[in-house]
């Protein structure tokens, strides 16, 4: 055979092998970072519902670009509360995924025979409380909050912390020069995840720090219901509540329930407010806290493709360094030094679990 033809044939064979390799490994079966998908004629639109705290991540232009160029995917998602999406939200054949913000919601969904072709925990974020500097300083003087040697604030006496809100204490009683009674604002537990998880945390606290059985929860449900009734209107989204905390000042939202990721994301996206954030905003880690996991549930083959795509190392990096989400993947590590945000611990070492799904459903009914 003509040597030129042999070289041409070998070249074509190598090109074909390279094409198969790049296509296979850039579509979720072993991603090659930075390589575009070859032969992608159009993106598959993946539809579903996600917790509001992930809105900015999903809207991130680099996230959208990676999903499009590496995986031929785009997300058409709608914000919904984690509790409602596994209890009352109508889900149809066109809904490829749900992405709630805690593992108990996933268990409730599975217990109700919800459609699933795969699931995995994509992100983690510990539950925290947000307040302002004068309140944090008063709580330190009251012996409720301590500052760790690493520089982050911990609520070391959760029972006393909660009692300020339940026992009718005035702000001035605890050393804060502000009118009114001590309150801790949260979202509606029957709709939103942060309120749902705080409901579980409150049940544990009222049960002397132990995870309650249903019989034990029955003894405390009236007291828990009173706590939430005193709040009046509750925001329906964790992101909306955090935005209120940021914009309305100490008097309106003096202490709120939230996620660690929220302040990190806000600080990273508002570098011009770094001085204000560090001087006025305070993030308090309850001891113990709870993990707000973010399990992605695929309900179709398209949802399954997105599930695998979200494990992409670059997407995981963006989630941490731009949006404050710790990875939910096994073996992944998150370094706070990458963030340029003060008061973030390298690890979360004091954690308790939520009550069981059956207890949480009982509590949801009990506080309505």
Structure description:
- The chain has 15 helices and ten strands.
- It has helices at residues 3-25, 55-59, 61-71, 82-87, 103-111, 133-141, 158-166, 193-206, 214-229, 238-248, 260-269, 274-280, 301-309, 313-321, 357-367; strands at residues 44-50, 73-79, 97-99, 118-132, 145-147, 153-155, 256-259, 281-286, 291-298, 326-327.
- With 368 residues, the chain is of the alpha/beta class.
- Helices cover 43% and strands 16% of the residues.
- The longest helix is centred in the first third of the chain and has 23 residues, at 3-25.
- The N and C termini lie far apart (83 Å).
- The model is unreliable at 3-38 (pLDDT under 50).
Please give the structural blueprint.
Blueprint: H1 3-25, E1 44-50, H2 55-59, H3 61-71, E2 73-79, H4 82-87, E3 97-99, H5 103-111, E4 118-132, H6 133-141, E5 145-147, E6 153-155, H7 158-166, H8 193-206, H9 214-229, H10 238-248, E7 256-259, H11 260-269, H12 274-280, E8 281-286, E9 291-298, H13 301-309, H14 313-321, E10 326-327, H15 357-367
Parallel strand pairs: 1-2, 1-3, 6-8
Antiparallel strand pairs: 3-9, 4-7, 4-8, 4-9, 4-10, 5-6
Helix pairs in contact: 5-15, 8-9, 9-15
The averaged pLDDT comes out at 89
Number of strands: 10
What is the count of DSSP helices, taking H or I runs of 4+ residues? 15
- Low-pLDDT runs: 3-38
What percent of the residues sit in helical stretches (DSSP H or I)? 40-55%
Largest sheet, in brief, is: 10 strands, mixed
What is the CA-CA span between the terminal residues? 83 Å
Series of H and E elements: HEHHEHEHEHEEHHHHEHHEEHHEH
Structural class: alpha/beta
Question: Cα-atom Rg, whole angstroms?
Answer: 23 Å
Which geometry do the CA atoms define? globular
Strand content: 15-25%
């Amino acid at each position: 055979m003509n040597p030129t033809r042999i070289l041409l044939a070998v070249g074509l064979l190598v090109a074909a092998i390279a094409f198969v390799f790049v296509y296979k490994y850039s579509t979720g079966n072993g991603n090659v970072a930075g390589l575009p998908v070859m032969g992608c004629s159009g993106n598959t639109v993946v539809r579903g519902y996600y917790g509001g705290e992930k809105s900015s991540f999903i809207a991130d232009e680099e996230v959208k670009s990676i999903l499009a160029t590496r995986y031929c995917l785009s997300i058409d998602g709608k914000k919904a509360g984690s509790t409602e999406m596994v209890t009352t939200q109508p889900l149809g054949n066109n809904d490829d995924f749900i992405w709630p913000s805690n593992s108990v919601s996933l268990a409730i969904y599975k217990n109700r025979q919800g459609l699933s072709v795969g699931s995995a925990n994509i992100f983690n974020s510990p539950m925290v409380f947000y307040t302002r500097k004068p309140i944090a300083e008063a709580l330190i003087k009251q012996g409720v909050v301590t500052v760790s040697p690493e520089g982050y604030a911990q609520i070391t006496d959760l029972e006393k912390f909660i009692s300020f809100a339940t026992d009718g204490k005035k702000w001035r009683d605890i050393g804060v020069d502000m009118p009114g009674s001590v309150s801790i604002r949260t979202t509606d537990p029957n709709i939103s995840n942060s309120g749902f998880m705080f409901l579980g945390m409150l049940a544990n606290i009222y049960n002397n720090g132990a995870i309650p059985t249903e019989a034990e929860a029955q003894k405390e449900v009236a007291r828990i219901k009173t706590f939430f009734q005193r709040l009046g209107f509750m925001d329906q989204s964790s992101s909306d509540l955090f935005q209120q905390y940021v914009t309305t000042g100490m008097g309106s939202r003096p202490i709120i329930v939230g996620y660690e990721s929220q302040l990190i994301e806000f600080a990273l996206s508002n570098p011009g407010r770094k001085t204000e954030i560090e001087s006025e905003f305070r993030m308090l880690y309850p001891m113990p806290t709870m993990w707000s996991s973010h399990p992605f549930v695929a309900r179709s083959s398209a949802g399954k493709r997105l599930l695998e795509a979200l494990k992409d190392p670059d997407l995981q990096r963006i989630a941490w360094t731009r949006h404050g989400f710790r990875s939910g993947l096994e073996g992944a590590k998150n370094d706070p030094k990458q963030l340029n945000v003060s008061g973030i611990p390298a690890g979360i070492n004091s954690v308790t679990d939520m009550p069981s799904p059956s207890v949480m459903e009982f509590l949801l009914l009990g506080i309505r």
